[in-house]
Amino acid sequence: MENNSTDRLKKLFVQHYGNPPEKIIKIKTAGSNRSYFRLIGKGHSVIGTIGEDLLESEAFQYLTDHFHELKIPVPEIVIKSDDGNFYLQEDLGDNALFDLVLKADLSKDISTEIEGLYKKTLENLIRFQLEGSEGLDFNKCYPRHAFDRQSMQWDLNYFKYYFLRPTGINYNEQRLETDFQLLMDYLLEAPSVYFMYRDFQARNIMIRNGEPWFIDYQGGRKGPLQYDLASLLFQAKANLPTAFREKMLQFYLDQLELRIEVDRETFISYYYGFVLLRLLQVLGAYGYRGYFEQKPHFIESTVFAIANLAWFVENITLPVNLPELQHCFGQMLQKSESSKREGLTVEINSFSYKKSGIPKDKSGHGGGFVFDCRALPNPGRYAEYKQLSGKDQPVIDFLQREPAVHDFLEHIYKIIDPAIENYLERGFDYLSINFGCTGGQHRSVYCAENLYKHLKEKYNIHLSLCHKMEPWQD
Q: Alpha helix (H) ranges present in 288-382?
């Protein structure tokens, strides 16, 4: 089936560029039902998209054309099939704001680069919300034209049926429904005449030439200003520090006041109501993907969402009384606290077979995984890369273009992920994973960096990353 689908993408590429693509690389997705491929050929690189839902594809294409006319930074649709479910769009690269956040230790410091990108992102969010709503036919949005009571009820039921029930939280159905109705009544008082992106999070913000670009807004609709702001600043796995979230909230309000009149106190009250709604929606989504689709890393991710909820319960009081929800939260937090343990530490190393040798295991357990990267294409053979490492963008670009490197990493993920899950289940505390190449500078470093990012995003574990040949030696 996939081959037939990629054949249709190839035909679109030929139709537009006149030549077939030289490479087609499947792009890994998290929770999406759409399939993405990078098609490369004759100086062109585009993202091929295969949608399963025609109405969703049409909504994305309509919104893209609308935002593109407003010069809001979204990918241009290059060409689409007659039925609309296959299309090629501008390639914005692989560097998401979320990746930068994962690599940083935000508990120590927020770099000026990350803070600057968040500020640019919030400035663009206001453009989506205000300019994007002008002249937009909300009837073309999917699956609803507006974030109304029914949309909120779907989110709350998602939380009830896919998180509370599978985790064994006890609740009174009628009282919980009463709380849901009270929460919705309150949130529906907020002005809701703006464009609401719906999934405005750092994973959907690509960084190209130092500027944010935006993807995955196909669920956008008419709604309140606060929801998208809550989605970004309380993104569970981004784990932003409280002080930074508050600083960005104030920055957003400062920028918004340049455009429209704002009652800050009222805005912030509704904002924290939507923070709660988004937290419940995320827990429902993690529960669905984890407990029902049997994807364990989503269950691991609930730790971050529960941490946000714990902060919320301790620091925020909404102007509506939600006793049954509070009862559920108490059980959830108690259950989370009792299940905490020291956890698993995974040590990732890159090394040189020629100079340093395979790193010694420090745990006394006899060693872990060792992967040999020497069969991969070697950027170190070219003069322009000799003084660089697998952490530098030109080398990253070189290796990302190589299907063999992509396949190598995909096989490693398929080996490592089950091992991590087995170690977690059995309560083990240490695993080492080592990547070696000739000089320990390019291929092994690139692979170690990518595995670190993959595991940090997927599991709630302790990670360390060490490049044995850094600083790089000739």
A: 296-315, 323-338
Report the alpha-carbon distance of residue 245 to residue 241 in Å, rounded. Answer: 6
DSSP 76: P
How far is Cα 77 from Cα 453, in angstroms, rounded to an integer? 29
Whole-angstrom distance, CA of residue 371 vs CA of residue 419:
15
Q: How far is CA 226 from CA 170, 205, 274, 275, 455, in A?
A: 30, 18, 6, 8, 31
DSSP 8-state symbol, 202: G
Do the strands 462-467 and 345-352 form a parallel or antiparallel pair, or are they unpaired?
Answer: parallel
Q: Is residue 279 within 8 Å of 268, Cβ to Cβ?
A: no
Q: Per-residue pLDDT tens for 78-112?
A: 999 999 999 999 999 999 999 999 888 777 778 99
Nearest Cα to Cα of residue 346 among 452, 232, 233: 452
Pairing of strands 44-50, 86-90: antiparallel
Per the DSSP assignment, residues forming a β-bridge with 221 are 196
Using one digit for the tens of pLDDT, what is the confidence trace for 296-349?
677 778 888 999 999 999 999 999 999 999 999 999 998 887 665 557 889 999
Q: Is 227:277 a contact under the CB 8 Å cutoff?
A: yes
Handedness of CA 95, 129, 301, 304 (dihedral sign): positive
Spell out the domains of the chain, with CATH numbers in brackets: 2-90 (3.30.200.20), 97-338 (3.90.1200.10), 345-467 (no CATH)
Cβ-count burial of 432 within 10 angstroms (0-12 exposed, 13-18 middle, 19+ buried)?
Answer: buried
CA-CA distance, 87 to 68, in Å (whole number)?
Answer: 16
Task: Tell me how far apart the alpha carbons of residues 182 and 93 are, in angstroms, rounded to a whole number.
Answer: 43
Q: Round to the nearest angstrom and report the end-to-end CA distance of the chain.
A: 48
Rg (CA), the chain: 23
